[in-house]
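Hi R.,

Here's the chain you asked about this morning:
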Amino acid sequence: MKRNKILCKTLLGTMVLGTLAVGCKNDLTEEDLINKNNELVEQQELDRADRAAEAINAAGELLSYSVKVVSANNEPVAGASVTLQAAAQTGEGGDPQTITTDANGEAFFGRAVIGGNILSVSADGFLDITARVDFGNISEGRHYQVIDGQVVPTPVTESSIVPLLSDGSGDQTATISGVVTIETDLTNSTPEVPQDLTLRASMPNFANQFNTQGSVDLEIYSFDSDLGIGTATVDNATGEYTMSVPATENGLEVELVAPNVSADQRLAIANRNGEPLDRPEYADIPTNFGPDHNYDGVPYIPGAIWTFPEPPAAGQGFDFTFERLGRGITTGLLFDMHDLLTPSELFGGGIDDMILHATSLGSGYTNSPNLTIVDLDGSGSGAFAEAHIEFAITGLTLTDAGSGFPAFTPIDFTLRYDEIEYEPNEEGELVPTETSQGVTELVEILTITTDDFGAITQDAVNEALQEAITNKVIGFDPENLRESPDWMSNLRLVSVVGPQDTDAVIVVNAAIGQVYQFRIIEAGNDYTNPSFVFSGGGASEQANINVLEFGTRWKMIPDNTGVTSPYTVLPSDMDYEYVPVSNDNDQSVLTSDDISDADFGNDSNVLNALEVDANGHIQFKNQIVEFFATDERSHIMPRAIIEEPRALKARVDIDFIGVDDNGGITTFDENVQEYGENYTEQFSVTVEPAAVGAPGTGALVDLTDGVFAENGEYR
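And the predicted structure, written out as tokens:
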């Protein structure tokens, strides 16, 4: 393949549409508005002046041009025909003007157009010449002035001295020969020959050595001669040419000028009309060649491409369904009901993962209430708790006056109750049993004086009770409640052992009593929506606890009912979203892929635990395990996050290919664009010519370092 030469320009046009955005401040002052208006008026005046100057220039009123024609001996040439023509050929000043030189060899053009011009000179006995002169650009202050808004010309006169060479009678000539080629086909290695091409000799350096007195140089100086001097016709078959040019003893510097050539250039293209092609192809593109055209943007297209097989269709539609797994409730710890009056998270992060809110501590308890834990939505059972109360006694009933007390004697009473203990049942679960042994408080809390018969009376009990309340004795003071450390029943006062025959017993029949703590005794199992229920204890109002959030693990069940395309490999990635129990208002949504079986064995991540079966469905590999579940607890149903596989064909761009003399590939530079997805086995690559219809066959490429990814696909 060949690259385009430097003098090749592909005719590809691009239209650029511009959008002018103007932003205006809303707080312009009056002075700002005046200044902006003045600027706009000034710009409009400048634009009008520019247009007027261009029109005046087209009429030739800004420039005059003096030409002096001389021989190679610097002698004036009279009677020479001098023609000046603006290169643009527009307007009055663009028409050709022809003037004959006077006896001094001078021709004066009173009107000339600023810009590029073509100058032609012919005279008997001399070679006709064509030269290019450029007077530059229109300039205010040099070519015109603006006075009172009007453009006033200030014409400038430029001059050149133009030498002529003899037509060859007696003068020396030299011969130039060579071969002209052109690259009109970049798909081969042989250059082509331009057709019907004429070369001309240009000697601007020779001409300008006479122009020391002139103000404008001649940029091109070539010959127009029927004598074959300074011109040559290129052979259409071989590209060869031979040209005679004038010569002097000191030599002349000659430049060869080729005209612009328009021809179709055959090359490989990767885009058409700005859109990429699926595959490069050969095309004939209209192209201009010549000194006025320079284009080096012809893209390099390697001679070969790599083609990979299509991967199997990607699976779609798999999902998980989730079922809440019941669990037990953490045992052994004491929970303070006062703390739960504000919703509290109990040991989040896997220890208990629930939020409890105590809406009432209850009132009127004279004994510990029963606290049962039921499951509102599931089959949870076996959990129970003990509740402890704090109290101030407000009512006492003498149920046994005892006997043998001395008269008018203070008798001390202590607080006693029956403690509820626990024993395992037939299933091994702890259940409450009520002990017959009274548990004695070590602190004497009440003193009652016997009457003149040595008896304990109800009136004496009431008097002692009122005195204890008045004196703010703990256990009787509403502002300083006595806390019970146990689950108790049959709260009573019993006389201290003394000389009496039998103990007196006073039963607590009224109290300011409320639940202040509870302890989970048995965890139970399978709870999904636990509820704490208080009962008994002589309460006028039962305590209440609401379970606001209860985090559990969730059973993950593969769901293939929505599969619309069978799977050949697993999805690229799988996670689940869950919402952990939290007091934070934002209810953070977290993600994880950690799963395990019911007993937290067979730890895995979601993707590693799955496989694709023969039907293109996804299932867990380990069919012995009853189920897999999320490792993380969530108080709401998790959501599966599945990154579905994509059937993505592997693609490699070849940036460069080196070939030997036989067209065999010796080296290449590749750029992997896509490694491919959803391939289930190692695949190969086919090497083909890059452009449709290009030659080449038989090249082989080995793919190495491929691996099987976690989801089973080969990359």
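The chain has three helices and 44 strands.

Let me know if you need anything else.
M.
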